[in-house]
Fold these 3 entries.
Entry 1:
Amino acid sequence: MALEWMPRDDEIKDHALHTDENWGTEAPCVVYEKKPLTDPKGNVVDGLYVSWIRLNNPRQYNSYTTEMVKGVIAGFENSSLDRSVVATVFTGTGPYAFCTGGNTKEYSEFYSRRSDEYGQYMELFNHMVDSILACKKPVICRVNGMRVAGGQEIGMACDLALSSDLAIFGQAGPKHGSAPVGGASDFLPWYLSVEDAMWNCISCEMWSAYKMKLKNLISKVVPVLKVDGKWVRNPMIVTDKYVDDGEIVYGEYKGGDDAKEARAFVKEHQPNADFELLDKEVDKIVWTFANLFPGCLIESIDSIRQKKKFFWDTMKNAHRHWLAANMGGEAFLGFGAFNTKKITGQDTIDFIKFRQNIAEAKDWDMDMFAEVMGKPKE
């Protein structure tokens, strides 16, 4: 059989919601913490807390495994029902990523070509988005790094987003065998112009935090690089508006030698990123929440969430079935290519050859798939 060199996992997944593996401190997992509420002077307020739900899989850029999805659901349900909690903060471990979506290794090695299994997994994913939209506490997405693919979608399900200016945002589905139908295609046409929403969903183009702020998709962007005691904004990004060939450029990535120098600077300093300013902004918003009637607050929040929920609830079940079926074809190729990039040296298939095979009406079998996948390096 062709493609026998691709890794495969035959350990059956447990899709039951509550298991003993939902919590823990050893990655990959989800960490749930209750931190004391503090006032603007840093004084602890007795008996009141902020719940932090933290994706803890930094080695794989906080991509969520099946067990982590369960942990997120449990975290939001716990926060929602805790009388002492004022607000919920959703974030990730480390300086590089909030979340990069589903765990591609798990997708490729277990779920691909197991469409029913992936359908069950998508029930969990849908429940995860539902748990964010249903949380009876305001939800802040603390974007500590990349918010990509499914990570972008669960981030957009939150009520407000505050971001590191090193973060990047975007979708990856059409390039890697899926579609942004875990929330992005539902939320973005409501947030953006239809053409902006279309391009963001299909292009797999990454947007900077500053561009996200310019598009009104996040609330606040702050620097996280502190060099010689001074805050330094992301040097890779154009942070001033100026006219270039008739277009206003802001929040775009620099090019040429400036970009190389800036990337080297970020690579050197990002491991020591300082989230002091980001956490101060989180605390400021939480304190605002704390000084409002809780019932009036959540009614106001739910009335706005309902617009997101309308489109999400309309489409989520149909998308669940399509995504499950897709695991037998394009997703098998897309996730497989990404998962084996260390073996082949490339993370995507040969799209032109794939389209040529389709034009010739070739069978979608392993021989056809082998023609478009990268070959193991010598």
Note: The two ends are 20 Å apart (CA to CA).
Entry 2:
Amino acid sequence: MTDQVWIINPVGSPLWDRQILANGKASFFHSAAWAATLSETYAYTPCYFVLFDGDNKVRAMVPMMEVLSFFTGKRGTSLPFSDHCEPLWETPADLDRLLTSILDYGKRRGWEYLELRSAAMKPDDQPASKKFLGHSLDLSPDENELFRSFRESTRRNIKKAEKSDVTCMVGGSMEAVEQFYALNCLTRKRHGIPPQPFAFFKNLHKHILSRDQGTIILASHQNRVIAGAVYLTFGRRAMYKYGASDPAYQELRANYLVMWRAIRLYREAGFESLDLGRTDPENRGLSQFKKGWTPEARELVYYRYSLRESLARREGGKSPAMTGRIMQNMPLPILKMIGSVAYRHVG
């Protein structure tokens, strides 16, 4: 056993995924594929802090990415665009050793702050900077038992989609990516948020979907794609990462059939769980959708360490509600342009 902290870039490492899977606690967000997707799309620098056992097994690990932005500051985040990112650890001493190393590294690199998306690394006497809800569905029961466990309205919506002749297609082709992206743009505009750059979804296909670490499920009605979702996998755990739909067909409840198809797919393949991702408590629609599958929620908390004594984060500008209303009325090409520029600065 050694206390030397290694700083590793997992991108391109053929052993990385095998090493962290052996730890038994890793999620998709710890994987090399996710690191490659984020770093190639947004020019973030992976710097994963690792403690190894004497036999070269990962004993503890905190994944970090350095974000360089003249708009939002230079910082370390664990990890950008990741719903949650628990460190891998066994003892508090290992966690303290890694955190000390990260803070020292951040100060040397000139980071303004460090954001950690985990309750395990809470700063002393400091409140959470953000809070979300997380839902996860146990896939061990049989299909009938799972179906009966859903809320009555969820079961009814699945049956409505089936009776409306909505069908689902499972795949990870570039064509499926393009079809999902079109739906994603509609959904983001409806919520007053710019869509992610298409380059992100191209890299998602390149590093993840084409390597069988995820899939896209698309729902169609009368040969028109009307809803879809992106799922990611790592080990025996699956994750619902992105969902989108055409509002003109909302009454068909196609998104419920998409989720039910995913649940059956991963249960039959022997997966242990389906993580439904994070939800803003103020997003009541999404929260109710996820509660229909599994009512129990856990709290996801983010913490921020300031690395500059004089740092004062500015919160000025228009309110999120006002900004959202403005973006809802913007032409989609303008929103795409904003997204292609803005996302790398907000990770």
Note: The first strand starts at residue 6 and ends at 8.
Entry 3:
Amino acid sequence: MIKKYRKKPIIIYASQWSGDFDPFINDFSDYALYVSRRIKLKDKKLIIETLEGVMTADISDWIIIGVNGELYPCKDDIFKKTYDKVEEEK
């Protein structure tokens, strides 16, 4: 039987790929070395080593660091339906 489920409210880190590699990698600050070892640039696409294998990301896709430190791309329309921005506490 199919039942309804709600995604748990977890906080992830993400940055939207604009096509400019160095500032994009620097967006991840504390994760920059980790991310730079798993993401390569080829023809304006990001080639990402994920837990499921190699995936690509186009400009405007979001790159997410998941709850277990894994990387994966997400299309902009799906990202906007799934995530809300968390305001930093002051």
Note: Residues 47 and 56 are 5 Å apart (CA to CA).
